[in-house]
Automatic annotation (TrEMBL):
It comes from Fulvivirga kasyanovii. InterPro entries: MrpF/PhaF-like. This is PH regulation protein F. Signal peptide: none annotated. The keyword Zinc-finger does not apply. Keywords: Cell membrane, Membrane, Transmembrane, Transmembrane helix, Transport. It comes from the Bacteria. Coiled coil: none annotated. It is found in: Cell membrane. It is a multi-pass membrane protein. The keyword Transport applies. The chain crosses the membrane at residues 40-58, 70-90, 96-118. Belongs to the CPA3 antiporters (TC 2.A.63) subunit F family.
Amino acid sequence: MTKRGSMYTLCMLRTLMNSSKTFKNWKGRYKNYSTEMIESAAYIVMILLMVSFFISFIRLLIGPSLPDRVISLDLISSISMGIIITYAFISKKIVYLDTVFIIALIIFLGTVTIAKYLKETKTKDD
């Protein structure tokens, strides 16, 4: 992702987190219904990400081969990034998004390294 693209993403997330309309509820108090609905959806997304995290972890433990375990580890890291992004959205702190970019770079390098290792061991076996 380019620098401009990542800045655009951060600006859009900040706008979404800060843009909210308040309405009077039936008691005459001002409520922000759109924010409540979005936060409820974020909590549901967090629960679904946690469930998929544990399913992927089980796949990591019982994977029959090394490539299956590598793929499940990559999936676990992607799900972890989704959990961090969802938590950043819920807590309204954009600082956590930098962490996601760093994790993505490290996981990408790890996946490429493991893929090279698997390719070399396969060619040695043949």
